[in-house]
Design a protein that fits this description.
Blueprint (H helix, E strand, L loop, with lengths): L10 E6 L3 H9 L6 E5 L10
Parallel strand pairs: 1-2
C-alpha cells in the first residue's frame, strides 16, 4: 500500500544511529511529530536536550 501511494508515512525526524539517545529524549519530551527514524548513515543531527 505504501508503494501504491494509498498510505503515506510522515517521517519528520531522522537521527543517525549513534544519536539514538537523543532521539529517545525527543520522543519522551514529545518534541517530535510524525515518525522518527534511526538511520545507519550519518544525517543532520538536531539536539532536543
Amino acid at each position: 500500500m505504501v508503494t501504491s501511494g494509498k498510505v503515506r508515512i510522515n517521517v519528520n525526524q531522522r537521527f543517525a544511529l549513534k544519536y539514538a539517545a537523543d532521539a529517545h529524549k525527543a520522543l519522551e519530551a514529545r518534541a517530535t511529530s510524525g515518525s522518527t527514524v534511526l538511520t545507519i548513515e550519518p544525517t543532520v543531527h538536531r539536539s532536543f536536550s
